[in-house]
Structure formats: structure tokens, C-alpha cells
Amino acid sequence: MFGFESSSSSSCYCWCSDPDVVAELDNLLPQQPKPFSLPEPLPQWPQGQGFATGVINIGELEVAMVKDFEVITSYTPKKSKNSITFYKPVSIPDGFITFGHYSQITNEQLRGYVLVARDPGTTDSESPPLSSPLGYDLIWNSSNVYIWQPVPPDGYRALGFIVTIDETEPDVEEVRCVRDDITENCQVDDVILEISSSCKVWNTKACKTGMFCKGVTVGTFFCSTGSGSNDELDICCLRNTNPNFEAMPNLEQINALIEHYGPTVYFHPDEVYLPSSVPWFFENGALLFKKGKSDGISIDCNGSVLPRGGKNDGEFWLDLPEDENDDTFVKHGNLESAELYVHVKPALGGTFTDIAMWIFCPFNGPVTFTVEVLNVNIEMNRVGEHVGDWEHFTLRISNFNGELWSVYFSEHSGGEWVDASNIEFIEGNKPIVYSSKCGHASFPNAGTYIQGSSKLGIGIKNDVDKSDMFIDASKRYQIIAAEYLGNVVLEPDWLQYMREWGPTVLYDGRSELEKLISHLPFFIRLTVETLIDLFPVELYGEEGPTGPKEKDNWYGDERC
Predict the structure, then answer these.
(1) Among 118, 178, 214, 229, whose CB has the most other CB atoms within 10 angstroms?
(2) Collapsing DSSP states into helix, strand and coil, what is residue 131?
(3) What's the pTM?
(4) According to the model, what pLDDT value does residue 527 have?
């Protein structure tokens, strides 16, 4: 028996009892990659509020996350090694409707979501929050791929695109548009694939992101047919107009999340500048200096003598003990006392939770410069050193079900978001974080990362590997801030210190690097000189960093 059916959504289904025919059809139809799942099932989270209930109230709408998809079609551009696959969300809860389709590279593990919404009918607005489109504009097509953009009624906006396998215009009931005043502008994020010289498919994100921002990314894609990436997109994100982030976890749920997902942080086998707790740093002789005064003052374990608030005006700084032996002792830290300092905040309009985990090291060691093509590795004498080193990584967790979605690895002045599907896990659903030798930047995998030109193999080395020196963040942590909970979390005194955690010491580090250049072959000198011009200024002198609360990402989003 053999049959074939085409649905109104242009998705194809077939049934057949002949295994040879089925196998042949499987080779012709787009193959759906296996969806990613965490190593272990999610636990039963503690109950309370709207966290992990599956539905989030964002004001005039209720939204749910859909991760189940069926393949619509795939497309491989000419002269491209990659192809793109378009998906339709399925298993949509009753009463909910989608805003558009999903897309990703074909041979990557299926890892994405789209939000679906329903109108709970709790508002008295003259215009409903959702409306069917008036029709569709055909944006791009080739062979079996037709990309359509919904045409919204006046006062409404579209949030995504629809894909079909032929020129038949989609049904207007397939998606909804959203009333303009409950949307936010969005922008393109990463390019998924350039499918022609005039067409690219992009991921999107809200234009404004951070703790206080209301934009809710819905997971659909953007199709650009212009020469650029379109600074002002004609699709949008949702806006969370609910004054209370009801889906954010309470304190008991936060502790459960950290105990379930808390990473193990590995330090390099040759690391000598290990972390410590902040109180250990203070109790072992760290000093507070004020501009114009030569003597430093001792700091109590809570940091209550530190100046509070204000800004980094250069009036105060911290330094190591004045006694040389104590100085050396404190530089090496104290792993037994070290703990992760946790800041919990809303992300993506309260539909996700960011758990930023900060780690403190009393001292940042000198850098190692590498030229891989010549097999040259030179450990610098002073370049890169400074007192007081604050590094962090961030867990991004879905408030729909409590699933770890991605991890941000802070890498000196930048960093990267890594999807959970590309992370190493050590125990259950606990990720591994690798801390680089001397510099303490965070990375997702063991190896060598180059700050400079990784393609040319020239720059500052970041070596990371496992060792018997590590911190289990699921057990050794302190929650230091969660502003959305009000006064539930008491912030430590030292967190209010906005000045530098180390002195500014100027020296001619540039000349040390230039001496290095003079010993390189002529053909590579220009490249190295150009890269050195791009290195952070702090490599040419010592300048202690400011604390966590003075960083841009404390209130804002992570920088990539």
C-alpha cells in the first residue's frame, strides 16, 4: 500500500508498506536532525509564582515556548557547503497560535524555539492584542522555497515569516500579528545563511536588552532581500507590559537552579594565581588607599570601611599587603576559601533568567605571547599583570520550564554565548567552565585560545585544561544580588565599592612587546605590530579592574 498527502501548510506526509520505497523517499525528503536534550531530565522545581509553569503572562498576552518542529523544506545555495532548513512549529497548546516559522542550518542539531501566544481576554482594549494578517507578500522564492511576510492591519505588526513549497499563498489564519503598542523593535543577530546574492536569513533579537528591558524575542527568523542587514526591521519582538516579572524564580527556586546547574570551574594545571573569597583577601592584608595619602588602611572582612556608591573617579583603590612576603602569599590566592558570587536578573523581558557567577582572584598574572607558525611562545615579564581580577560566566535559563539554554563565557574584554548543545557537562546537567592560565578568562572547552589572530596563530595565549584545582559552583556560592526580589537578598558591603580593586602602575610594557617584535622574521613583523595596536591598553601597564556592579553587564546584557 502506498499513499501521499499534502497539508494546507505545505508540509508533506507519506505512508507506505514497502521498506525499499520508504528508504528511497527518505533520501528525497528533508531529514530532520535529532533535537538536543540535556544529559538528564529536568527535576521537579520547587513550586511558587509563575516560574516553570509552561505559560508566562506578559500583560495582554500569555505566551508559551514550542520546541517541536516538522520540516517544511530545505534549500542549498549554489557553491555553498551548507543548506538551510525551514520548520513549522507543532504540538502547539490549545488556544495558542504562532507568529511565524523557524529556520536553522540543516546539518546542525535541532536547537531552537518559537513563542506562541493567546489572548486571555482580560483587557478591555478596543483593539484586540492579536489580529490575522490581511494577506502575505512574497519576499523571495526559488524552486521549492517560497518565503512570505504577513501584511499586518493598521496598528499591528508582523513578528515573523512563513515558508511554503509552492506559490500558493498561506492561509491568513496560520499566524497572528500583534498590536503595535505591545511590541518592541528588533534587530538582526547572527546570519543563519546567505541563500542568494540578494537574500539572507537572520536570527533576530530585541534592540534593547538588559535587566530592565521589556523586549521578548519570539524565535522566528528575518529574511533580508536588500544589500544590508536593515537597521530598522519591519518585523518586531513582543513587549512584556506586565509590571511584575511573574515567571522569575523565587529564592528557593534560584537555589535549586544553582544546585542543579552549578558548573565545575577548572583551573590550569600550571596555574599559580588562584582565586580566593573576598573576605580572605581582606583578612590577609589587602589595603585601601586614597589619593593624596601614602598609607593604606586595613579592610574588615565585610568591606564596611570601603567607600560606597559613586563612580570610578580614581580617588580610591585597593592594593596587596606592603610586606613583600605577605604580598607574594596573597597573590597566589586561596582556593579553599573561594566561592562564586551570584547575581540573578531578568533576561529577554523576563522570559529567561540570567544567573551571572562572578569569581575573584587577588592577582592576574603576565601574558604569554605566541607565534604558532614559528612555534614561539614567550612569557612576558610584566605585561598583563594587575592586582584584583574579576571574571564571570552566565547561565541563561528558560523561565518556561527551567531548562538551561546557553552559557556566556566572559573572555577578558569580550566573550561569547555558547548554546547548551555545545557545552561539556561533568555531572548530570552541570556544565564545565575552563579558566585560562594566569588571566582567568572563561572558555567552554580545553585547549589554547588566542587573543589576536587565531587564524594566523599570533597573539596572547589563553591555555585551559582540567586539573585537580577546581571549584564546584553548585556547592560553593553566595547569592549577592537579585534586585527583582526586592529586599530578599542582602547585598554585601564590598559590592557597593565602585572603584578599582588594584592600583594603576604605569610602565613601558609597549617596549617589552617591541623587543619581541624585533626578533621575529621580517615577513611576520607587520602583522604582529598591527595586532599589538589592537591590544587593550591595560597590557601596557597595571590597572586594577572595577568590581562586578560597575561593569556594563551588571544592568545590561553580555557583550559578545
Answers:
(1) 178
(2) strand
(3) 0.89
(4) 66
